[in-house]
């Protein structure tokens, strides 16, 4: 890992300096060449097909080497949804660009007034038929869109149906951010940095083939994505690095806290403890055998 990671990038990570788009994408492309930008993907879609322990080891090695955390919106969030619910055409069109690190994705879930209460999203997508095929006309606003200023594509929860209960009217749409009518406006945070944005859709035309799965099941796909988002945000490898750099118990406690919050205590503590023990055993045997 360390041999392939550019030194200027690991220097920034180790010293908590801001990473540029170029830094993030250079590393994404290096991983992509080896089929590791989608390190949790199955072989069927071009990933390494690793099990949970192997994935954890990869993440830990990345953190130890000082690699940037992979920008998750493409490989960690939307890719599993496309694999599970997307059409073969969507899989063929989008997964290669995500794996290679060429295409930058953004997440369009939150709206003003629809954060925790996500099922209340109001961004409207009206389906219309034209001579050149069906399309959606999208009007509305996303907010807190992380690194949306770099986005090529954005996955959005949109309201295609206003009848019934809120959850049933939500669709999951893939939108090309270069489409006419898409505007990205920066939100400058208290530290003066530009990391999050507002994204506006003003009569944006989206081909109907960009709808993922069934129109009325967007809420199901949204929850499926969130399960991937949360395990990623727990950032176990970072806490592992804290363990190695400082007190092992402080790091372990931080790691457990991170996992227990989003996912529930029992299962994950057991799982992590097993991973921890397995990694320690492997390290001990490696040292004993003189291979490190
Ligand atoms: C740095 C950053 C980056 C982000 N990036 C993205 C992104 O890329 N894409 C995206 O879609 N979103 C993004 N988000 C949005 C994030 O997912 C939302 O902030 C989150 O869903 C919470 O919504 P909210 O901010 O509107 O808070 P609110 O929903 O208004 O909640 C405010 C407070 O009220 C509490 N609260 C809310 N409802 C209840 C309730 N029923 N009972 C008790 N307490 C309640 C919450 O816990 C919270 O403390 C980002 C947010 C941040 C801060």
TrEMBL record:
Keywords: Oxidoreductase
Residues annotated as domain Acyl-CoA oxidase/dehydrogenase middle: 108-204
Record bears the keyword Electron transport: no
Keyword Manganese: no
Span of domain Acyl-CoA dehydrogenase/oxidase N-terminal: 26-102
Sample GO molecular function, one term: oxidoreductase activity, acting on the CH-CH group of donors
PANTHER family in the cross-refs: ACYL-COA DEHYDROGENASE, ACYL-COA DEHYDROGENASE FADE29
InterPro entries cross-referenced by the UniProt entry: Acyl-CoA_Oxase/DH_mid-dom (IPR006091), Acyl-CoA_Oxase/DH_mid-dom_sf (IPR046373), AcylCoA_DH/ox_N (IPR013786), AcylCoA_DH/ox_N_sf (IPR037069), AcylCoA_DH/oxidase_NM_dom_sf (IPR009100), Mycobact_Acyl-CoA_DH (IPR052161)
Organism per entry: Roseateles toxinivorans
Name recorded for this polypeptide: Acyl-CoA dehydrogenase-like protein
Residue spans crossing the bilayer: none
Recorded GO CC terms: plasma membrane
Any Pfam family the entry gives: Acyl-CoA_dh_M
């Amino acid at each position: 890992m360390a041999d392939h990671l550019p030194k200027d990038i690991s220097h920034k990570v180790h010293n908590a300096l801001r990473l540029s788009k170029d830094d993030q994408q250079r590393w994404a492309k290096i991983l992509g060449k080896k089929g590791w930008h989608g390190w949790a993907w199955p072989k069927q879609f071009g990933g390494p097909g690793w099990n949970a322990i192997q994935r954890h080891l990869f993440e830990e090695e990345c953190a130890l080497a000082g690699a940037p955390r992979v920008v998750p919106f493409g490989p960690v969030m939307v890719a599993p949804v496309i694999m599970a619910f997307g059409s073969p055409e969507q899989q063929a069109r989008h997964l290669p660009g995500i794996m290679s690190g060429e295409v930058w994705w953004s997440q369009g879930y939150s709206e003003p007034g629809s954060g925790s209460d996500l099922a209340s999203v109001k961004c409207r997508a009206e389906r219309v038929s034209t001579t050149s095929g069906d399309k959606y006309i999208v009007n509305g606003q996303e907010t807190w869109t992380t690194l949306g200023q770099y986005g090529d594509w954005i996955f959005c929860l949109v309201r295609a149906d206003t009848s019934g209960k809120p959850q049933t009217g939500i669709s999951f749409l893939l939108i090309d951010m270069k489409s006419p009518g898409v505007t990205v406006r920066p939100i400058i945070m208290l530290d003066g940095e530009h990391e999050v944005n507002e994204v506006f859709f003003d009569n944006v035309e989206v081909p109907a083939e960009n709808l993922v799965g069934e129109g009325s099941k967007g809420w199901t796909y949204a929850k499926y994505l969130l399960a991937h988002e949360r395990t990623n945000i727990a950032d176990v490898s970072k806490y592992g690095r804290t363990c190695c750099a400082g007190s092992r118990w402080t790091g372990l406690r931080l790691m457990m806290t991170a996992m227990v919050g989003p996912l529930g205590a029992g299962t994950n503590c057991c799982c992590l403890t097993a991973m921890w023990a397995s990694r320690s055993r492997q390290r001990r045997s490696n040292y004993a055998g003189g291979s490190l």
